[in-house]
Specification:
Layout lengths: L3 H17 L3 H7 L3 H15 L11
Helix pairs in contact: 1-2, 1-3
Length: 59
């Protein structure tokens, strides 16, 4: 199980990604590198046991 602070941070990041439907803009807004944001979302998905972001081809 994830710690409360970490989980809240990941949920905040997920909300930003969901709002913009991308990783680049939220990463910039949250002031974290794109790979770190993507990894955080993947970690959240693994902890939940389900996909929370629909991934498509890179543009």
């Amino acid at each position: 199980m994830l710690g409360g602070d970490l989980q809240f941070k990941q949920l905040r990041q997920l909300a930003a990604v969901s709002e913009k439907k991308s990783i680049r803009a939220p990463a910039k807004r949250l002031a974290i590198p794109q790979p770190a944001l993507s990894r955080s979302i993947r970690n959240l998905e693994e902890a939940l046991g389900l996909a929370v972001v629909e991934r498509g081809p890179r543009r």
